[in-house]
Amino acid sequence: MKKAYLYHQLDQKKVKCDLCRQGCIISPGQKGLCGVRKNIDGELYSLNYAQAMAANIDPVEKKPLYHFLPGSRAFSIGAAGCNFSCKFCQNWQSSQITKGKSGKVIGEFFPSEEVVQAALQYNCPSIAYTYTEPTVFFEYALDTAKLAKKKGLKNIFVSNGYETKQAINELVKVIDAINFDLKAFTNNFYQEICGAKLEPVLDAIRYTYEQGIWIELTTMIIPGKNDDEAELKKLTEFIAKLDPTIPWHVTRFIPQYKMLDVKTTPLETMKKAAKIGRDAGLNYIYLGNVNDDEYLHTICPQCQQKVIDRTNYRGESNLDENVCPYCGYEIEGVFA
């Protein structure tokens, strides 16, 4: 347990959490919507500090990040809790456990110093804060990222994009890359399926991009929920207007949690989304959770040659740092 970094006190010992756009006002003895931030006698505390529910060595491509140190490994950690309540959550056992009857915050003690040491020991050039929503273990992630920076390691955030500007201002000091979930492009989807709103996510994506942090975006296509062509056109046009070189990951929905009655996304639907993205002007589109060679590799947008070859989430680069060896085009990303 650790005192929270971003909050302010109100009357009657209530506090307002300033970490995410849910903006929870929490009375003494109560927790925020995420289930891991508690008001104790007028002070806000993080209950999941240094309590890792998962720690693994992953290909960075699994985050997914395809233009950030491709072919490398990221030491990945996650803690319990989430500020969303997505009905299709792929990690619901970890993210939603703090909202159950017991409300327990479980995990194994894994302090920041040991996380950084493990990343160095296993020759991982980066640490990823992932699996659940890292915003709700902000203090743990931030403290670890600061130590990692001092040791020459990169830091990765895999987020639903509900951070406040205050939180982003702290993150950009130590985070090198972020993959944001842009789950859909309607407010109805966010409200009914995720317990959130669309506009704060768009705000976070825009603001983070403006700070110069490398970002990639992911959208899981769910049949009948966010696969409407007009919606996907608006979504991809939003990305293209921001920057057409931002990689867009289109991933397949597999029935999980409270959406077991929805079928797995057909490959044709995903390819339709990819085509819509191409028509919007996006340079880099990838399909995830499918076996499809067409949208797996990185293709130079100028000469159309393959510059990063991928197999089983591992990328093998043909680039000279970030330069296409065939035409000299500078591929956008962080490659060295």
Protein model, in words:
The chain is an alpha/beta fold and about 325 residues long. The chain is built from eight helices and 18 strands. About 50% of the residues are buried.
Global morphology: globular
Unreliable residue stretches = none
Helices and strands: which structural class? alpha/beta
Give the N-terminus to C-terminus distance in angstroms.
37 Å
Features:
single chain; 336 residues; alpha/beta; nine-stranded mixed β-sheet; three-stranded antiparallel β-sheet; 8 helices; 25% helix; 24% strand
How would you briefly describe this protein structure?
By secondary structure, the protein is an alpha/beta fold.
Which helices and strands, and how do they pair?
Elements: E1 2-3, E2 7-9, E3 15-17, E4 25-26, E5 37-40, E6 43-46, E7 51-59, E8 73-79, H1 92-95, E9 108-109, H2 112-121, E10 126-129, H3 138-150, E11 154-159, H4 165-171, E12 177-181, H5 187-194, H6 198-210, E13 214-221, H7 229-242, E14 248-252, H8 267-280, E15 285-288, E16 298-299, E17 306-311, E18 314-317
Parallel strand pairs: 8-10, 10-11, 11-12, 12-13, 13-14, 14-15
Antiparallel strand pairs: 1-6, 2-3, 3-4, 5-6, 7-8, 7-9, 16-17, 17-18
